[in-house]
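Long-time lurker, finally posting.

We've been working with Putative ABC transport system ATP-binding protein (Actinocrispum wychmicini) and I want a structural starting point before designing mutants. I don't trust myself to interpret raw outputs, so I'm hoping someone here can both generate the structure tokens and explain anything notable. Sequence follows.
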Amino acid sequence: MSTQTFAPVVTPALRLAGVSKVYGSGDGQVHALRNVSIELRRGTFTAVMGPSGSGKSTFLHCAAGLDQPTSGQVWLGDAELSKMKETQLTVLRRERIGFVFQAYNLLSSLTVLQNITLPLRLAGKRVDRGLLDQVVRSVGLADRMNRLPSELSGGQQQRVAIARALITRPDAVFADEPTGALDTRTARQVLELLRHVVTDMGQTVLMVTHDPVAASYADSVVFLADGQLAGEMRRPTPERIAAQMTHLGEPDLV
Ligand SMILES: Nc1ncnc2c1ncn2[C@@H]1O[C@H](COP(=O)(O)OP(=O)(O)OP(=O)(O)O)[C@@H](O)[C@H]1O
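Top reply, 14 upvotes:
Generated this for you. Predicted structure of Putative ABC transport system ATP-binding protein:
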């Protein structure tokens, strides 16, 4: 009898296959993404960089089910987003994806605790006390739970947004310029938190950024140029990222 061993098949957290996105029609057509294929393993931190207009936001929107590609497929785990109707996508985004934006998007009339647990309430799910405690401890806000967002600093508000993104145990967290509105020191704390979320909590994070220092916190950086993948850098450093960006046509980043 022959024995065969198979490598375990691990579904990636996110997979894009031949994704293209065209805006407009006729002479006004813009090819924002051209045949992009990529896989993100679970528990990894990936930064997306590229010159202005290279397609970073379009990539994030297609990957997170905020927009549908013109052609190609997108999978979040085993769910094919590119086949879903808007109502299904709304549920998937709420229950399986965490979002962190530059403008924290907290509800001003809700406390920190109510903001963090809002996605669960919207989904009609119970709050898992153990996870809530872990998330609140991780983001360092245990003594601020009953405050309103307006009583917090920008960095603290972004940490509330990160806690809210984690509370559903999403398949992936998508961050769009999460440190864009923060000073250097506060930005570093938020980036260290995202790093911790990946290394110690096993989350998968995809972050769009213009900042080579922010991107250097990731495991790898994916570069876009003119809507196409233009390389990947593992174990990135700010200097190597800036050099690559200059090569792609973005002047003087550091
Ligand atoms: N809704 C839209 N309608 C038409 N064209 C669009 C739309 N959204 C984006 N584009 C175009 O698609 C291309 C890619 O845009 P995208 O916003 O994805 O780039 P980006 O890399 O995120 O840019 P930036 O760094 O400046 O934010 C650009 O040429 C942009 O003008």
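Before you design anything, note these points.
The chain has one domain: 14-247.
The longest helix spans residues 184-199.
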